[in-house]
């Protein structure tokens, strides 16, 4: 059993009610938390940031110049960059949707990780495993769901922008492309999570039509079945 599950879900609902949770992930949080094997601990629907850093990697003393959870207007984006006159280095960062989920056991964690990867969140991983000091058995397993749509681009330093308006327009175009693609992956993830525990669920993978998903696992479709259209459920081990 996941510790303090009811209280933590109550706290999450309070955050949702006050608008402190990104709207784009609420349905996914509800789908994950509808199963006792999982409990979400943090999430973000993805964001675009202009971030001023003292030096590369020194986020502790960073300064957020601008932050958007939806696409900004192109004019606003360009003006925020061209008007910057701070210190340190200015970066534009596109961050993928991200979820951290506590799993009840390793099997459940691997199942969720595999499903997330198949539905487009290729950087998903088992982020950490905490062991009991006495038994050395896992007592807390955290899964991270993360897509590959990430950009970190330096733009200037010491108050000087080292680019021009043409490049800023190009950068906005690429950010728009990757941001919208990451949002489409959220819709795919919803579909995958909706069938996570349906024992009769058989569907063709959205990423590869040669495989099908059965309760979160991947199975190659034999040539004979592809030709006849038959799909048989066979035992599938983790």
The total of helices stands at 6
Counted up, domains total 2
CATH architectural type of the largest domain = 2-Layer Sandwich
Task: Please provide the count of β strands.
Answer: 12
Order of helices and strands: HHEEEHEEHEEEEHEEEH
CATH class of the largest domain: Alpha Beta
* Dominant shape: elongated
Average pLDDT, all residues: 83
For this entry, what is the oligomeric state of its chains? single chain
What's the arrangement of strands in the largest beta sheet?
Answer: 3-2-4-8-9
The structure class reads alpha+beta
Polypeptide structure, described:
There is one protein chain. The chain has 238 residues and is an alpha+beta fold. It has two domains: 5-195, SSo0622-like fold (2-Layer Sandwich); 198-238, no CATH class. The chain has six helices and twelve strands. It has helices at 5-17, 23-33, 74-82, 106-118, 165-194, 223-228; strands at residues 38-44, 47-53, 63-68, 89-95, 98-103, 125-131, 138-146, 151-157, 160-161, 203-204, 211-214, 217-220. Strands 3-2-4-8-9 form a five-stranded antiparallel sheet. β6 (125-131) and β7 form a beta hairpin. α3 crosses α5 (165-194). The protein starts with a helix and ends in a 10-residue tail after the last helix. Mean pLDDT is 83; it is low at 199-238.
